[in-house]
Amino acid sequence: MTETTAAQGQTLRQLGPTVYLPSAVYSTGIGAVAPVIVLTATGLGASPAVAAIVAGLLGLGQISGSLPAGVLISRVGERRTMLTAAVFAIPALICCMLAPNVLLLGAAVALLGVCGSAWALSRHAYLTEAVRPELRARAMSTLGGVGRIGTFTGPFLGAAAMHLAGLDGAYLVAITGVGLATVVLIVSPPVPHDRAVPAGAERPGLWAVIRANRHTLRTLGVGVLLVGALRASRQTIVPLWGVSLGLDPATIGLIYGVSGGIDMLLFYPAGKLMDRYGRRWAAVPAMALLGAAHALLPLATGAFGLTAAALLMGLGNGLSAGLVMTLGADASPAAGRAEFLGAWRLCSDIGQGGGPLLIGAVTAIASLTAAAITVGGAGLLAAVLLHRWIKPHPRYE
Fold first, then answer.
1. The whole model's pTM is what?
2. Which of 128, 160, 188 is the last residue of a domain?
3. Which of 31, 98, 252, 368 shows a CA-CA span of 20 to 30 A to 125?
4. How far apart (Å, rounded) are the C-alpha atoms in residues 60 and 70?
C-alpha cells in the first residue's frame, strides 16, 4: 500500500475537496474573529477582566458542546451535524457583530464555541472510519494542519477587512468563511462512512460508552488533557513574557507569528513519523520540547531569548499535530465511536481551557516565572504519561 492510499480507494488528495477544504475555510473564518472578541466586548463597555471572560466563553462553548455533538453525530451523521453547526454559527456571528450589550455577546460567543466543537468532531469521526489505520496519523495531522493554517491566516484577513469596515469587517470575513464552507459541503458529493447509526441497530448510550471506556479516559485521557493545557499555555505565556520584558506589541506579534510558522510546517512530517514508527515517537518528544521551552523561559531576558523559546514551542507543538485526534481514533470502539470521541475531545478541551487559567492562577499567587516552571513540569509529566499509556507500535516498539 502507498503512503496515500485510503479506504474506498481514496487518497489524501482526493479527500481534499470534501474534507480538508471545508475545514480550512471554516477555520479561516473563525480565526478572523478570535482576536476581535475582546475588542468587541471592551467596545460595549466591558472591563478588561470581563472582556477576557467573554473571550473565554468560546472555549467553554467548545467544552460544553463535545458530548452533545458526539450523540448528534451518532444519530444524524457527520454531514448533517456540520450543516447544523453552520446553520447556528452564522446567526451567532451576526449576533456578535450587532450585539447591543455584553450579555448577548457572551451568549453568541458561547454558541459559536459549541458550533466549532460539533464541526471539528464531525471531521474527526469521519476520518476515523474513512482512513485505514496505516494512514491515520497523516490524515489526522493534515486535518489539524489545515485548521492551523486557517487560524493563522484568518486574523490577517480580518485585519485587512477591519481597515475598511472597522470591527464589523472581521465578522463579515468570518460569516463569509463559514458560508463558503457550508456551500462547499453542500455541493460536494456524499462521502463514504458519513452515516448515522441505523434506527434499528443497537446504539449504546453516551454514559454506557463512557463507562465501558473509563480506563482509557482516566489514563491516556489525562495525558491528552495535559497536551491541551500545554498547547493553550504557549498562546498565553509568550505574549505575557514579552510584555514583562517591555517588548512592543509588534515585536511580540512577530515572535508569536514565527513560532506559528514553524508549527504549521511540521504537520505532515509529524503524521508520517507517527504512522511509520509509532505514536510515541512524536508524542513524547513533542511534550518534552513544550515542557522544556516553558521551563527555559526564565532564562529569556530579551527578544532573542524569547524568540528561541517560542521557536522551541513551535517545534514541539508542530510535532504534536494531529496527535490527540490520532490517539482518539486508535482508542475508539466500533460501537459508540462518535460518543467516545466526544468524551475524548472533552478531555482535550478541558486542558485547553485550563492551561491559561493555570498560568493566571500561579502568576497571581507567585509569579510569571513560577507559572512557566509549573507548566514546564506539566510538559514533562505529559511526556511520561503518554509514554506509559500509548500502545507500542506493532512493528517498531
1. 0.86
2. 188
3. 31
4. 17
